[in-house]
């Protein structure tokens, strides 16, 4: 199964094509919509989330709610497009003004930066052409890579808005995995300097309870402290990052492979999670934390008893050994840096004038760790679904489940 996304943050829509999805899977529009809604939640999100109401429109590959095996094509419309359709017009209709008014009463024209520019934006205007790169964003490297004189062509596609399409693709993967009793959860374990401070066991996970927390944290007291951390960053005109954890349960041993480097499932998952905008570190199991331990304190010993069969009492490996699942819950953690668009912009250089300016400023989140965790669920689901299909094959759900059931029986016989 593979997927491609297209679309810009303020374009008309995000588009998605999922190829290789098996036939016979019953889809739920409500489930996909809920996943998209969960991505929009979280304390510290910007005003954009008050505008959008993400829903998927499936164009092909599904008939009467059941997948057909053909490529699934879908759209997620951007409601904010109405405020940007002049700036983001596909076709040129005469000379576009460099600055386009989309609301407000201000009349002054913006300069390259400084107080005048901030007044211009606060009056409701949007910059059609951007030349002041933001430190930490794709702005400068992207403009150089594609030889662009307008950073907007970079920031529109590199925006985390694209992850809405990935969450939709992940929802399709999750519906397939649920047919095999594989479930995926996520929660936030730190924001800024505030940490949960304890390990969460898979049996504790309650997705509805996690989603009720504004920061998607399992502890109410820590949730409040995390919100205060976000409030302090907002008051300072700053942003704040954190760490989230994704846990998958119900996995059989043997997904992935040690035979070739690109078949290792831990490598595929690490790449997928690292591809989420602003994620700068990924670990499985103890990860970085285990590097200071001795082997005797790190590795998960193997035991046997008649009641349980072969089992382990710890899961420091995070469910992954030799590039393969080992039958325990998969535990993935990701470190997300602070958002690079700040209310008090950092110093930068105008690419046209070469003058020192303050970086371009557009509305943004103060903290997006809770929503990034939902994106993490989606990309992990996609990689697990791919690993399942590579191992068990099947163009239809019935074929896949038959092969999967035989393998599970074989594993259980070996372990007991």
TrEMBL record:
Pathway note: Metabolic intermediate biosynthesis; chorismate biosynthesis; chorismate from D-erythrose 4-phosphate and phosphoenolpyruvate: step 7/7
Family annotation (InterPro entries): Chorismate_synth (IPR000453), Chorismate_synth_AroC_sf (IPR035904), Chorismate_synthase_CS (IPR020541)
Enzyme class, broadest EC rank: lyase
Example GO BP: chorismate biosynthetic process
GO CC annotation terms, alphabetical: cytosol
GO MF terms, alphabetically ordered: chorismate synthase activity; FMN binding
Keywords: Amino-acid biosynthesis, Aromatic amino acid biosynthesis, FAD, Flavoprotein, FMN, Lyase, NADP
Binding, NADP(+): 39, 45
Keyword field contains Endoplasmic reticulum: no
Residue sites binding FMN per the record: 157-159, 322, 337-341, 363
Cofactors named for this entry: FMNH2
PROSITE patterns: CHORISMATE_SYNTHASE_1, CHORISMATE_SYNTHASE_2
Cofactor, free-text remark: Reduced FMN (FMNH(2)).
EC number of the protein: 4.2.3.5
Catalytic activity: 5-O-(1-carboxyvinyl)-3-phosphoshikimate = chorismate + phosphate
Xref: Pfam families: Chorismate_synt (PF01264)
Region (Disordered): 98-118
Assembly mode: Homotetramer.
Family, as annotated: Belongs to the chorismate synthase family.
Biological function: This reaction introduces a second double bond into the aromatic ring system.
Protein name: Chorismate synthase
Source organism of this protein record: Candidatus Hakubella thermalkaliphila
């Amino acid at each position: 199964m593979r997927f491609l996304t297209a679309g810009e943050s303020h374009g008309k829509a995000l588009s998605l094509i999922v190829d290789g999805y098996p036939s016979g899977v019953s889809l739920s529009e409500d489930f996909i919509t809920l996943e998209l809604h969960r991505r929009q939640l979280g304390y510290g999100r910007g005003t954009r989330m008050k505008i959008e109401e993400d829903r998927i429109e499936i164009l092909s590959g599904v008939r009467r709610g059941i997948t057909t095996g053909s490529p699934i094509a879908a759209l997620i419309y951007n409601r904010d497009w109405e405020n940007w359709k002049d700036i983001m017009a596909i076709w040129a209709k005469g000379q576009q003004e460099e600055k386009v008014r989309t609301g407000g009463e201000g009349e002054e024209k913006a300069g390259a930066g400084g107080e005048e520019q901030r007044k211009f934006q606060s009056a409701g205007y949007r910059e059609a052409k951007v030349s002041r790169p933001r430190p930490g964003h794709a702005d400068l490297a992207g403009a150089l890579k594609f030889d662009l004189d307008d950073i907007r062509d970079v920031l529109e596609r590199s925006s985390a808005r694209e992850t809405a399409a990935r969450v939709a693709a992940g929802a399709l993967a999750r519906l397939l995995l649920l047919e095999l009793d594989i479930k995926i959860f996520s929660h936030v374990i730190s924001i800024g300097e505030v940490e949960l401070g304890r390990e969460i066991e898979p049996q504790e996970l309650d997705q509805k309870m996690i989603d009720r927390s504004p920061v998607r944290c399992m502890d109410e007291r820590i949730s409040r402290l995390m919100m205060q951390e976000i409030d302090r960053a907002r008051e300072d005109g700053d942003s704040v990052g954190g760490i989230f954890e994704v846990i998958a349960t119900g996995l059989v041993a043997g997904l992935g492979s040690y035979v070739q480097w690109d078949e290792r499932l831990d490598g595929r998952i690490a790449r997928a999670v690292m591809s989420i905008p602003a994620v700068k570190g990924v670990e499985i199991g103890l990860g970085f934390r285990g590097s200071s331990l001795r082997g005797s304190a790190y590795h998960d010993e193997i035991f046997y008893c008649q009641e349980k069969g072969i089992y382990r009492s710890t899961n420091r490996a995070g469910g992954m050994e030799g590039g393969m699942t080992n039958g325990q819950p998969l535990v993935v953690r990701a470190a997300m840096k602070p958002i690079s668009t700040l209310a008090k912009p950092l110093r930068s250089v105008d690419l046209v004038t070469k003058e020192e300016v303050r970086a371009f400023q557009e509305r943004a989140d103060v903290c997006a760790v809770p929503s990034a965790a939902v994106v993490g669920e989606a990309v992990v689901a996609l990689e697990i679904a791919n690993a399942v299909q590579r191992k068990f094959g099947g163009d239809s759900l019935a074929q896949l489940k038959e092969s999967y059931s035989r393998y599970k029986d074989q594993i259980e016989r070996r372990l007991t």
